[in-house]
Amino acid sequence: MADGDVVKGSWRPEEDRRLCEILHELGGCKNPGFSWSDVAKTLGGGRTGKSCRLRWCGLAPGRGAGVACLSGASSPVLTRA
């Protein structure tokens, strides 16, 4: 994939896990200086900051497809509700 290529379409399970890990490492999206564009760059694979934000909102507990990122564990875990 060349630089500048934007990935569209369904998220793969490994992308979901990595997104959760990145948000966990950054301490969540409420931290000062947080940037969804930085999340997208760290994630790699051609996702945009907007795509990451929308996916994260869909993964949040009680929303979207019922997938939750559990932050209380020593490492982030994704479960199906």
Task: Give an overview in words.
- The structure is a single chain.
- The protein is mainly alpha-helical and 81 residues long.
- The protein has one domain (13-80).
- It is 41% helix and 10% strand.
- The protein contains 3 helices and 2 strands; from the N terminus they run αααββ.
- The protein has helices spanning 13-26, 36-43, 49-59; strands at residues 67-70, 77-80.
- Strands 1-2 form a two-stranded antiparallel ribbon.
- Strand 1 and strand 2 (77-80) form a beta hairpin.
- Helix 2 (36-43) packs across helix 3.
- The longest helix has 14 residues, at 13-26.
- The chain is globular.
- The chain starts with 12 loop residues before the first helix and ends with a strand.
- Residues 63-67 and 70-75 have low confidence and may be disordered.
Per-chain topology:
Layout: H1 13-26, H2 36-43, H3 49-59, E1 67-70, E2 77-80
Antiparallel strand pairs: 1-2
Concise overview:
The protein has 81 residues and is mainly α.
Count the domains.
Answer: 1
Q: Helical element count?
A: 3
Structural classification:
mainly alpha
Cross-sheet strand order for the largest sheet: 1-2
Weakly predicted, low-confidence segments: 63-67, 70-75
Radius of gyration: 12 Å
> What is the string of SSEs from the N terminus onward?
HHHEE
Shape: globular
Helix content: 40-55%
Distance between the termini: 34 Å
The largest pleated sheet is described as: 2 strands, antiparallel
Average predicted confidence as pLDDT? 77
Q: How many E-type strands?
A: 2
Strand content: 5-15%
